[in-house]
Inverse folding.
């Protein structure tokens, strides 16, 4: 055998014998669908570019009782109420996904993510349009809405808009809206500079309201009755003040926000409950976001934030000393709550973000005498992502429309009731409950919706009657957008 033929034969045999890295999931498909989901949650007048075609216009008179325009925005979950607090967090996370993970998206995905973000920020600008005198809190009466099972196009429940007037405090709500608008101003800086300036200007003014009138928005009895127990600010308002200031620091570079973060870190509890991150508790996100200043600009005055972020990261590794995060037997990050995957999504985002900060500064995670490379953090996130997409004890995808096996009954009114195009006549409030308890699959597929997920034992009851298992939320999907974008760009990571 000639040497050239010999070496070619050996090369071919090696290709056949050696394992090749094959992506375990189609992360590109997951990313595209995770963004598409937001079209199914839209409230208001839908654009001609609407791709989730079974949805129609809804809630076109929102704000009328307060003589203002509050049409638009997102329904937060499977109901038809617009809760501004979680909506703002959703917007912040869509913006953060664009800012830190947009380079991993295709131009098409990036564009669609900006569209999803703008649908939220256009509405949030309305929510703070009457500052410094008034901030809008919510549209819809939660209890009346939850007493009905009807698609948003048919709503006949009260669409009462709720507001707080100065000097009533709303630091948590206003702080989160300020964070969302500031983060979005960065996301739109290149694509829409004029809009970016509008967002940043309003973010500054919204933060001023939050800081000037300190206190929780749910401390007000009228608002408390409307919002609670669904989106009470259980964690208080101080974390949102730090969160808003952190995003404004990143958006403006202003020393004012740097000094604010330095002066208020201990008083506002950045060292307390730092294992949490979600629509109510921003502490984990605050520490990770501010750590970027240390990694990139060596702003050593902020080192305490990075140190706390590092303690949080170390808690994900079982071999470290100190407190640890919990995992299910199947490997899912688990924190108790009514919607399990919201915790998984938000914490996964922080892990991946911190890993990128470490990589870009050529550093490792220090946990006492142990050191972990950035890929160690990414492997934890990869396990979460693959679990959500089907590598779990139940062998199902928790993203609707992804893969062959996913829940066909979800706790979502619009998805479960035939669309207007199929059934033009309205479904009444009580008529819908027969559909709610029906064993039939949903007639409308809410593509891309990541559901509440399994319990601590990896068990999942895939029926729409089990809200904690099968209800999707915007604030589960929003962090996953950035996470899916990373693995779309690194499909063979293992």
């Amino acid at each position: 055998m000639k040497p050239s033929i010999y070496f070619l034969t050996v090369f071919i045999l090696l290709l056949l014998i050696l394992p090749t890295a094959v992506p375990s999931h189609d992360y590109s498909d997951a990313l595209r669908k995770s963004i598409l989901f937001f079209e199914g949650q839209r409230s208001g007048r839908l654009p001609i570019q609407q791709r989730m075609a079974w949805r129609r216009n809804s809630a076109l008179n929102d704000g009328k009782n307060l003589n203002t325009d509050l049409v638009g925005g997102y329904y937060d979950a499977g109901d038809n109420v617009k809760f501004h607090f979680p909506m703002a967090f959703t917007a912040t996370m869509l913006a953060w996904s664009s800012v830190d993970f947009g380079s991993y998206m295709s131009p098409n995905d990036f564009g669609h993510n900006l569209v999803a973000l703008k649908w939220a920020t256009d509405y949030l600008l309305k929510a703070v349009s009457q500052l410094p005198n008034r901030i809008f809190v919510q549209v819809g009466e939660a209890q009346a809405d939850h007493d009905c099972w009807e698609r948003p196009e048919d709503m006949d429940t009260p669409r009462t808009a709720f507001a707080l007037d100065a000097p009533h405090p709303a630091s948590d709500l206003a702080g989160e809206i300020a964070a969302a608008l500031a983060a979005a101003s960065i996301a739109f800086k290149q694509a829409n500079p004029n809009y970016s300036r509008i967002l940043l200007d309003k973010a500054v003014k919204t933060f001023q309201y939050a800081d000037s009138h300190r206190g929780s928005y749910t401390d007000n009895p009228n608002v408390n009755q409307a919002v609670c127990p669904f989106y009470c600010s259980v964690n208080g308002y101080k974390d949102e003040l730090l969160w808003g200031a952190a995003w404004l620091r990143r958006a403006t570079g202003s020393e004012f926000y740097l000094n604010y973060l330095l002066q208020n870190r201990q008083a506002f509890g950045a060292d307390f409950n730092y294992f949490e991150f979600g629509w109510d508790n921003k502490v984990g996100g605050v520490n990770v976001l501010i750590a970027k200043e240390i990694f990139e600009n060596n702003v050593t005055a902020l080192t305490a934030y990075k140190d706390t972020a590092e303690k949080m990261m170390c808690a994900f590794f079982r071999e470290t000393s100190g407190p640890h995060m919990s995992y299910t037997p199947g490997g899912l990050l688990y924190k108790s709550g009514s919607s399990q995957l919201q915790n998984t999504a938000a914490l996964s985002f922080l892990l991946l973000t911190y890993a990128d900060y470490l990589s870009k500064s050529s550093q490792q995670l220090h946990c006492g005498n142990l050191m972990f490379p950035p890929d160690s953090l990414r492997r934890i996130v990869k396990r979460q992502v693959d679990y959500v997409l089907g590598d779990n004890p139940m062998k199902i995808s928790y993203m609707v429309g992804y893969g062959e096996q996913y829940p066909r009954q979800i706790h979502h009114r619009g998805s479960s009731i035939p669309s207007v195009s199929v059934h033009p006549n309205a479904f009444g409030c009580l008529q819908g409950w027969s559909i709610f308890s029906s064993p039939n699959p949903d007639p409308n597929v809410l593509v891309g919706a990541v559901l509440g997920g399994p319990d601590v034992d990896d068990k999942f009851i895939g029926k729409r009657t089990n809200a904690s298992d099968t209800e999707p939320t915007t604030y589960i999907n929003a962090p996953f957008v950035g996470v899916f974008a990373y693995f779309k760009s690194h499909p063979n990571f293992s």
Q: What stands out?
A: DSSP finds 18 helices and seven strands in the chain. The beta strands are 82-83, 134-139, 161-165, 326-327, 333-334, 365-367, 370-372.
